[in-house]
Amino acid sequence: MGSDGEERAPEFGSMVGELREVYESGRTRDMEWRRSQLRGLVRLLEEKEEDIFDALREDLGKPRGEAFRDEVGVLVKSVKDKLQNLGKWAAPEKVETPLVAFPASAFVVPEPLGVVLIFSCWNLPIGLALEPLSGALAAGNAVVVKPSELAPSTAAFLAANIPKYLDSKVVKVVEGGPEAGETLMEHRWDKVLFTGSGRVGRIIMTKAAKHLTPVALELGSKCPCIVDWLDSQRDSQVAVNRIIGAKWSTCAGQACIAIDYILVEEEFAPILIELLKSTLKTFFAKPGHMARVLNERQFQRLGALLDDPRVASSVVHGGYFDPKTLSIEPTILLNPPLDSDIMTEEIFGPLLPIITVKKIEDSIRFLKSKPKPLAIYAFTTNEKLKRRIIEETSSGSVTFNDAIVQYGLDSIPFGGVGHSGFGQYHGKYSFEMFSHKKAVLKRSFLIEFMFRYPPWDDGKLGMLRHVFRFDYVNLFLALLGLRR
Amino acid sequence: MADAAALGETARELREAYESGRTRSVAWRQAQLRGLLRLLQEKEAEAFRALHDDLGKHHAEAFRDEVGVLVKSANAALRELGRWMAPEKVWVPLIAFPASAQVVPEPLGVVLVFSCWNVPLGLSLEPLIGAVAAGNAVLLKPSELAPSTARFLGDNIGRYMDAAAVKVVQGGPEVGEQLMEHRWDKVLFTGSPRIARMVMAAASRHLTPVALELGGKCPCIFDSIAGARDLRFAVNRVVGAKWSPCAGQACIAIDYVLVEERFLPTLLKMLKSTLKSFFPEADHMARIVNARHFERLRALLKDTSVAASVVHGGSMDAKNLYIEPTILLNPPLDSAIMTEEIFGPLLPIITVKKIEDSVAFVRARPKPLAIYAFTGNASLRRRIEEETSSGSLVFNDAVVQYAIDALPFGGVGESGFGQYHGKYSFEMFSHRKAVMKRGYLIELMLRYPPWDESKVALMRHLYRFDYFSFVLRFLGLRR
User: Fold this and answer.
1) Tens-place pLDDT, residues A34-81
2) B310 near B330, Cβ under 8 Å?
3) CB–CB of B435 and A399 under 8 A?
4) Phi, psi at residue B395, to the nearest 5°?
5) Residues with Cβ within 8 Å of residue B445, at least 6 apart in sequence
6) Is B88 within 8 Å of chain A by CB?
7) What's the pLDDT at A193?
8) Measuring CA to CA, which residue among B63, B58, B41, B410 is closest to residue A468?
9) In terms of CA atoms, which chain A residue is nearest residue B64?
10) Using CA atoms, how far apart are residues B368 and B380, in angstroms rounded to an integer?
11) What's the pTM value of the predicted model, to 2 decimals?
């Protein structure tokens, strides 16, 4: 892993050239080849499962259960889903042609974009690399995957194993840091998917602009969780399970769709906090059941969020930072100031601010004043509130009475809107992200309408008028000379 | 001409109009579409006049390529609006029970449409139809190179549509740059790759999503057509797709033709005679938009080997910005006329030994917006379909794909990205929001820490939808 960008540029040039050549050979278009790649991915995930768990534990201290639940298990399911549906997705879609075009047939034919580049992120280093990879392969592309260097064990694992299980001439893994990423972006790609921060997203898109390379950006955001009064003790407990599962159990809060902060009615806050405390105790009684903070830099960043004395004094649970092990215990804050960093920047860590409102409906106005997040969560059985949230707020997704689970559902698109990004994937959307929908029209010489062409006269104009209104009766009459 | 402060004010007003929520209602969207239809109907004569002023377009061509298409599209949008707006219920696996999920389309917000000078009405209003159907507030920036049409839009859009939510701004490149200082929820740009790069780079600063409709050299593969009738119709369609749309100044016009050596004389003869019958007088073909483009086209013929390849036409009238339909035979492949998008009434014909050689020729070049092929040969058709890539591919006709609502319109590779027309217009300016609803009836503790191997084993079964094994293990009847 060199740091000299200059040195690597020619290297990437020949890699990109090779990929283009292999793509042009047509190998990746073949459906059997695509299926073999997807099967290869499934085998990789199943055979190398232990190695994956080891890599994730080294990089992030992820416990096995979490690594399986959030990365391996989800992936196996979704790659198999792609295997099952590939035929359907790749098939040309016959579409309607107007009668005036008769005889004609029209199709929308998906084709691969060509040679694509996937940047994945450090927090879900297997998932954010392989889910898009499976979509790109299903769509018939040649692919370069650039894992994050901040999760080095996983990057090394991918570099070592992708060539073993997949067609190594068509799928490449490039290790390295930001300079490697920048050098890669000097080239033209047929599509780039970037998952990461808005800051780097801007750099990627600016570089892509030089080559007019289409990009998709999956960016971060502050995902809010509205917690309404729930009908029963049991329901409240279930909700709290799910909230904890979506905050601390997901890479210690370092996830783009983790709950960032909570909005709750003043009166309900104490109840919620008590439930959170007791459930946290159950879930994380022993060490090793929560991931650790990625590295020193993230640890410092999170610590700095509590530098503001107003924020520090709002801590109602936890707050202990251990610099030796880079662990931060699950921390809850109650009403830190809205202008503090912890309430303006994406937290991406195990700190949970709870903001109280007078009436739960006030949450909606609160959300509308903030940038559109990747996900909005709401624990409520109030149908009117649900409807208002759907209609009056905007986000990549909305999930009611649960959180994070939308990530595992293949039938819905995953992606942001506004500041949380653009471009969607998962399921068939992964296939479409890396495809071009080619419009194909087939006509015949059986019928020829001279009113399409000059020299122009009012008769032709009259017939064109009928055509564009699909007014076949009048068109027919006009053609017969019985009407203008 | 708007200045920076005025532009900022315009953007703010549009944002306010959007945030008020009124563009979301079906009624508002229908009203905009109906307003547009009324505009096209009541102001048709003015629209024709503007297009004639700007480009010398005959009003029948203006109707065929711009007004008529727009009427069709707006009517289709009105008809389909309910269907496009409806949430789509999707499948949820049993393990999630009880749960439901849907994909809900919502407007992106405030969108910006840059249109181009050559189809100045169509390239402004076709996207506008999609943007308002999708419930957005819209700012339209027509090209200053078609000033009469720009003024026509400026004068009339506000009268027929919601003037606070649908606006037109006049001006040139500086205005475009100033507009891009702001954040938009989407930008659609139709024009040249050079400006597109600037638009996309400016958009990156705000992480604004963009769609780019760029040009390309659209090739026409012309196979040996048997049968005099078929041949005549094929040549009609070639002439109709080169010189009839804005004198070749169209992104989907035929740029050049590929034909077998031995069939060339037949094709050439037919082209000449069809040109004579289609364009008996100059006013049945548009003129060149302005002096700059006229000089650009003239310069294409300056190269002596290119000039020497002219086999028909070639005369140019600088005063009236008129270039007669011109055909060239085998100009050098490295000349500007064969490497740059022509966008004018000059048609190079390139001969190949065998028509199948066209496929390699096209593949060696950037992906165009459209590929056309006149052929009855099924195996050639299949090769073209499978081995070439382009925004669209049309057999035995040309340009007409633009008018078919069910087909997405847009480029790939160097010809751009993003598609519209029909439902794709609606989708271009929409966000597909995923909405998932769950309940509290069933709670599986295997999702949460503290972790142990049995939880992992149970999850394994669930992710495989292996409910049977899951139940057995869950009940403790299996380890």
Assistant:
1) 999 999 999 999 999 999 999 999 999 999 999 999 999 999 999 999
2) no
3) yes
4) -105, 130
5) A241, B455
6) no
7) 98
8) B63
9) A464
10) 19
11) 0.96
